[in-house]
Specification:
- With 208 residues, the protein is α+β, with helices and mostly antiparallel strands.
- The protein has 5 helices and 10 strands, in the order E-E-E-H-E-E-H-E-H-E-H-E-E-H-E.
- The strands form 2 sheets. Strands 1, 7, 8, 9 and 10 form a 5-stranded antiparallel beta sheet that branches.
- A hairpin with a 2-residue loop joins strand 2 and strand 3.
- The longest helix has 20 residues.
- The chain is elongated.
Length: 208
Amino acid sequence: MTEYYVPASRGESEYVEKRSRFLGHVRPVESEDEARAFIAEMKKKYYDARHNCSCYILRGGVERYSDDGEPQGTAGLPMLEVFRREGVENVVCVVTRYFGGVLLGAGGLFRAYTRSAKDALDAAGVAVVRRWVEGSFACSYAAAERLKQELVPFGALVTDTLYAADVTVKLLVPEENAEALSARLFDQSAGSVTFAEEGESFRPVRVR
């Protein structure tokens, strides 16, 4: 089953190194035009900054980066490598630098731009885009937490827990694992709990 990772939301970061300020900005995007428009927006907003370095990766293999006047290989490429390592696509990142008057050297710049991009991605979070089965099961209060632990090996995520006469756990499970999860819940509850499928969707769900 096809799945891929994207930023869960917008993310911002700020890092100061020897009086230079590095402002990181991460956004989810769907196209190269959208990525370029965001880069242009940040350059306009931070027109008084020394550098607005950028990168983006789009699903399908498009990758671009710019050092925007920093020494070659010290800004855009290290930023790009952050998203390659994390396996994140459909993402654009701009790191704005306000120069603090002290030269950082190639190594210092490499570390600062890498950290700024990673901090901004951490702030945004990461979501997996895939097809999910939506469903729920009802159980006793005593069994609820134990059965929730059974969801983990199947990649299932709890979306809501409702407390009434019984506990109703609503969840998302990758479609290829739905049948196996249903069997596991049935077995672990001695046949008293069944997983009810309520629909399916292809969408991003935050995982970290």
